[in-house]
Structure formats: structure tokens, C-alpha cells
Design brief:
- This protein is 45% helix and 11% strand.
- The chain is of the alpha+beta class.
- It has 3 domains: 1-131, Beta Polymerase, domain 2 (2-Layer Sandwich), CATH 3.30.460; 139-262, cca-adding enzyme, domain 2; 277-366, no CATH class.
- Strand 8 and strand 9 form a beta hairpin.
- The chain is elongated and about 85 Å long.
- Mean pLDDT is 94; it is low at 371-378.
- Bound molecules: adenosine-5'-triphosphate and magnesium ion.
């Protein structure tokens, strides 16, 4: 048993000793049953937030209004949430109110999918009121209850359905899928950050091309993503976020990362890499891209254009590819002024990209004012 699982057991048993019910719930139960790595052990309890606070010496009032208290065990944090139902969803975003309840089944019924709506007691008893185990076995994402109603309550669930199907390699059950196509326009009301996070998890999953299913269903219509071509190239790049977002930019030209509120660095590097990558066809074009855009952007563009090995080989060669690798500096040209110096250095850099053997101070000073075409007797 992992240390985290043991901590969760300690918390659940303390709650039980005090006379309350306590269960592991949601994603951790799903992942334990699938023997997948567990990210967070979330605990649901019949104790009120105040009762949880008084029972443990170290707690943080993370979201008391929603019933969540974070309990600290050693250096690790565990969310303990009081059984609750959710009130009306005012704007398809989040529940206006939550109501604390004493019945576990009511808490499980508010959860999105059957595979996410199971609970596990400290003694190992599984509570599965909605057929989660059989859907796990069959590889099916199915809403708890009426899918249209569930999507009307929170439109994010439509994106989550596709995201889980991409992460787990599951299929989305027919009624759930149909309801998503009907309710798709409700996604326009979601915050950009929530949509972005689901898109990113899908892109970084083993089936990133399922972003195409989000588009086909109309879930990303408000982002101007209405159609797409072949997205199989997504899975061909490594599953890190920069590679996958950059490939998405290349394959989906109308994708605008700024509107998804991605951070500046990700937005800039991915957009540029997608723009640069078609030009990377050989070693020299890769070197030129490094000189023009810097290693990080050029290398990412190289990943997109299948030139990762070329970049590795350039790196290993130690060839001069940036101004700071050049064997001369601005002060080697005392007769030139600011912009002229820069132009001179860039001219020499472009020369050296094709003639690495010329990156020596005496040679570069001799060929200053780059050679007329065809004249390279060095
Ligand atoms: P992950 O591995 O991505 O963390 P997870 O299933 O733990 O997957 P979370 O977003 O951490 O997903 O949510 C924890 C649990 O809370 C879910 O398993 C589900 O039971 C419930 N849940 C989360 N978001 C929603 C939602 N929008 N609607 C209904 N239930 C939800
Ligand atoms: Mg989680």
C-alpha cells in the first residue's frame, strides 16, 4: 500500500472511530480498480466541515462553503468533503448552492460518470449504485442519470466525457454522446480556463486525436474550431504539453491559444513553432531556424516536422548556430556602429551555419563583409 493510501486509511479510520462514515470517492476509486496510478485520494464523509476540523490537528479550510477541509498528514494534503448534493446551476458553470446530506448515495448521484461515482470504505467495501464497475469493465463513459439534464447542469461534463475517453481508451455510451451533440452550444458559456484544462488533458493523453471528437460534436464551436483534417500526427509527437499544443496549432490553423488563456510562453513558442516547422526540411534549414528563433522554438518546430534527430545531431556536433557561439564579438569591429555590428555578426553567423570550419576569429575577420556569392576560398 502506498504512503498516500495509508494516510487516507488513517483519516477514514479516525472519522469512523468518531462515529462518522468515510469513503474514498471519485477518481481514486476508479484508478485503484483499473490499477492505474492515483493522483489524489479524495475522501467523502458524513461529518460536517466543522466536525472534520475539530477531529484533526492540522487542517486547512479549503472550501468550507462547498464542504471541503484539507487534512494534512505528514507533508501531504488530503481533501475531506462532506456528503453533499448540488443545487441549481445558475449559468451552466457551477452550482449556486450545495446542500450537505447524510446519505452517501445522494453524494454519488451528483457525480458526472458512473465510473467516477463509486466509493470504497477503509475495510475495502465498494459502493457502486450506478453500475460503475461494469462500465469500467466494458470501457464505457456513461452519465449518472439523464445525460441531457446532467450536461445542462454543467456543460464541462461534455468535455470531461471525451477527455476521460481519451485518457482511458474508453468509448462514450450512445445516449451520453447524443446528449453531448444536442447540448454542445452550452459549452460557449464555460470559462476559457476550464475548457483549456480539458483540452490539454485530452491532448496529452494516449488518444489526443479525440480532440477531433470534441470538434465534431460542436463542443469547441465557440473557439472557431468547426472542422478538422487528419489529426493522427498528434499521437506521433511526445505527450508533453508543449509538443501537443504546438502540433494542435499546426493541424488546426484557427486554434487561437490566447483565447484559451494559455500562458504567454506556451502561446508564443507553440504558435511560432507551428509557423516555422514546414520550412525544416534538412540540416541547414534546422540550423537557420535556431539562428533565427533560438534553440527552444526551433527544437519544438523540429519535433513537429520529424527533425528531432537532426537537432540532436546539431547539438552534439557543437557547431556554431547562435551569435553567442560565434568566434567574434561586437568589439572585434571597432570601426562599425550599433546596427552595423549586428548586421555584420548575423552575416558571419549565416556564413558559419553552412561552413562550420570557418568559425575561427582570424578567418571571420578575414571574411568580414560577407563574401560575394560564389567566393568562398577558405
Ligand atoms: P483526474 O484524474 O483528472 O483528477 P478525477 O475523476 O479525480 O480525475 P476530478 O476533476 O479531480 O476528476 O474530480 C474528482 C471527482 O469529482 C470526479 O471523479 C467526479 O466524481 C466528481 N466531479 C468532478 N467534476 C465534476 C463535474 N463537473 N460534475 C460532476 N462531478 C464531478
Ligand atoms: Mg482528481
Amino acid at each position: 500500500m502506498s504512503a498516500a493510501r495509508e494516510h487516507a486509511q488513517i483519516i477514514m479510520q479516525a472519522l469512523e472511530r468518531a462515529g462518522y462514515q468515510a469513503y474514498l470517492v471519485g477518481g481514486c476509486v476508479r484508478d485503484l480498480l483499473l490499477s492505474r496510478p492515483v493522483h489524489d485520494y479524495d475522501i467523502a464523509t458524513s461529518a460536517s466541515p466543522e466536525q472534520v476540523q475539530s477531529l484533526f490537528p492540522r487542517t486547512v479550510p479549503t472550501g468550507l462553503r462547498h464542504g471541503t477541509v484539507t487534512v494534512l498528514v505528514e507533508q501531504e494534503a488530503y481533501e475531506v468533503t462532506t456528503f453533499r448534493t448540488e443545487g441549481r446551476y445558475e449559468d451552466h458553470r457551477r452550482p449556486e448552492t450545495v446542500k450537505f446530506v447524510t446519505d452517501l448515495e445522494e453524494d454519488l448521484a451528483r457525480r458526472d460518470f458512473t465510473i467516477n461515482a463509486m466509493a470504497l470504505s477503509s475495510a475495502g467495501t465498494l459502493v457502486d449504485c450506478f453500475g460503475g464497475q461494469s462500465d469500467l469493465r466494458d470501457g464505457i463513459i456513461r452519465c449518472v442519470g439523464n445525460p441531457e439534464r446532467r450536461f445542462e447542469e454543467d456543460a464541462l461534463r461534455m468535455l470531461r466525457a471525451i477527455r476521460f475517453s481519451a485518457q482511458l481508451g474508453f468509448s462514450v455510451e450512445n445516449k451520453t454522446l447524443h446528449a453531448a451533440s444536442v447540448c454542445a452550444p452550452l459549452c460557449a458559456a464555460l470559462s476559457a480556463e476550464r475548457v483549456r484544462d480539458e483540452m490539454e488533458k485530452t491532448l496529452c493523453s494516449p488518444q489526443p486525436e479525440k480532440i477531433g471528437l470534441m470538434i465534431d460534436l460542436g463542443l469547441l464551436h465557440h473557439l472557431n474550431l468547426k472542422s478538422h483534417g487528419d489529426l493522427s500526427a498528434l499521437a506521433a509527437v511526445p505527450p508533453d504539453r508543449l509538443s501537443r499544443w504546438a502540433m494542435a496549432c499546426l493541424l488546426l490553423p484557427s486554434l487561437d491559444l490566447t483565447s484559451l488563456r494559455l500562458d504567454r510562453h506556451t502561446t508564443q513558442i507553440c504558435t511560432k513553432a507551428a509557423h516555422v516547422s514546414p520550412a525544416l526540411v534538412d540540416r541547414i534549414s534546422c540550423k537557420r531556424a535556431i539562428a533565427d528563433y533560438g534553440w527552444e522554438t526551433a527544437e519544438l518546430a523540429g519535433v513537429l516536422s520529424g527533425q528531432a534527430d537532426t537537432f540532436a545531431s546539431i547539438r552534439q556536433s557543437g557547431d556554431c548556430v547562435t551569435l553567442s557561439d560565434l568566434a567574434v564579438r561586437g568589439q572585434d569591429f571597432p570601426d562599425l556602429k550599433g546596427p552595423e555590428i549586428f548586421e555584420q555578426l548575423r552575416g558571419l553567423l549565416y556564413h558559419v551555419l553552412e561552413h562550420p570550419e570557418d568559425n575561427q576569429k582570424d578567418r571571420l575577420l578575414a571574411i568580414r563583409n560577407p563574401l560575394p556569392a560564389g567566393d568562398s576560398n577558405f
